[in-house]
Amino acid sequence: MTPTLRPVLSQLPAYVPGRSVAGAIKLASNETPYPPLPYVVSRIAEAAADANRYPDTNSTAVVQALAAKYGVAAERVKVGCGSVSLCTQLVQAVADADEEVIYAWRSFEAYPIIAAVSGASSVQVPLTDGHVHDLDAMLERITGKTRLIFVCNPNNPTGTTVGRDALVRFLRAVPPDVVVALDEAYREFVTDADVPDGLTLLDEFPNVVVLRTFSKAYGLAGLRVGYAIAGDPAVATAIAQTQVPFAVTTVAQAAALASLEPEAERELMQRVAGIVAERSRVHAALLDLGYPVPPSQANFVWLPLGDRTVEWAAGCEQRGVVVRGFAGSGVRVTVSSPEENDRFLAAAADLRG
Ligand SMILES: Cc1ncc(COP(=O)(O)O)c(C=O)c1O
């Protein structure tokens, strides 16, 4: 006899982390290429000296700093072990077995896993031909069993966005008892003024919760800190109820807090501006090479290569560049430093079909 496991586990898609290959550059996980600021590292080191103590399970100082930064009540802010953990907590907070979670597909590859593990049913709504959320089609899939809708804006892996008018129209049509998670993991990279800051929608739509992270723009992917800001404090409380105790370490809290200090944040946002400038350059270069890359508002670009995907991603790897291929669909490539982007563009030029 072997131990009995839940049958759902054998059907789960595996979460495929971006691979690290010795000697190659990694453009597969949407990380920043730059290490944490020296000041942040020093605060991390100080916090490490307290590692014999459990962390503050409520991440109180980080919650307060975020509440002050965004001008929202602290009771609406929750900090989690990466925003992927907050996605999980949210599903567990709102969906019982066989209730439904709607999201676009293709989108963040953790959504199907999170829904399946929690016992909820996934309703995947294909992106439009332009690789954008099809909000009308998503509305049509709402039923009495729908508990949560993820809108990933900008969308991972396509980098595409939904604009304010379309999103507001959508939110007005969603029943107010259905929670909408605006996953804004890449918000800091958005430069298009038409892409709404989810936080500006919370007053009109209390069923909305905005999810953000310190992993991307703030360069703390390895420490795991994300946050949720909910329109309704009851949703924030529910997220806290489904958190694993002590999920955010003292070191992670210290790093997030240090990164929010005005001088550190200014420097980090200058780095973001550099990535955004590189995004324009990489996008234009790929278009020149004949790749039909949709406009991106994130720190990555999407090459919809369909059946060529696996071979093309392997070709990049042979040229020392690890990218993220989604078989049969396309390749996502993180925008990095100018030198690393040049290496990628050289590979893309070689691999032109
Ligand atoms: C859309 C989206 N949401 C959430 C996450 C999770 O980020 P983290 O758990 O590192 O905060 C990612 C990471 O890749 C993402 O792309």
Are any ligands bound, and if so which? pyridoxal-5'-phosphate
Largest sheet geometry = 7 strands, mixed
Number of strands: 12
The residue-averaged pLDDT reads 97
Measured between the Cα atoms of the first and last residue, the distance is 52 Å
Judging from the principal axes of the Cα atoms, what is the shape?
globular
Please compute the radius of gyration using only Cα atoms.
20 Å
Q: Which strand order does the major sheet show? A: 2-8-7-6-5-3-4
- Identify low-pLDDT runs: none
Q: How many helix segments?
A: 12
Helix coverage percent? 25-40%
Secondary structure blueprint with pairings:
Blueprint: H1 8-11, E1 25-26, H2 38-48, H3 60-70, E2 77-80, H4 83-94, E3 100-105, H5 110-118, E4 121-126, H6 135-140, E5 146-152, H7 164-173, E6 179-183, E7 208-213, E8 226-230, H8 233-241, H9 250-260, H10 262-288, E9 300-303, H11 309-318, E10 321-322, E11 324-326, E12 330-334, H12 338-350
Parallel strand pairs: 1-10, 3-4, 3-5, 5-6, 6-7
Antiparallel strand pairs: 2-8, 7-8, 9-12, 11-12
Helix pairs in contact: 2-9, 3-9, 4-5, 4-8, 10-12
The structure holds pyridoxal-5'-phosphate.
Structure explained in plain terms:
With 353 residues, this protein is of the alpha/beta class. 38% of the residues lie in helices and 16% in strands. It is built from twelve helices and twelve strands. The strands form three sheets. The chain has a seven-stranded mixed β-sheet with strand order 2-8-7-6-5-3-4, sandwiched between helices. A three-stranded antiparallel β-sheet has the order 9-12-11, covered by helices on one side. It is globular, with a radius of gyration of 20 Å. The termini are far apart. The model has no long low-confidence stretch (mean pLDDT 97). It binds pyridoxal-5'-phosphate (PLP). Pyridoxal-5'-phosphate is lined by residues 30, 82-84, 108, 152, 156, 183, 185, 213, 215, 221, 226. Pyridoxal-5'-phosphate binds at residues 30, 82-84, 108, 152, 156, 183, 185, 213, 215, 221, 226.
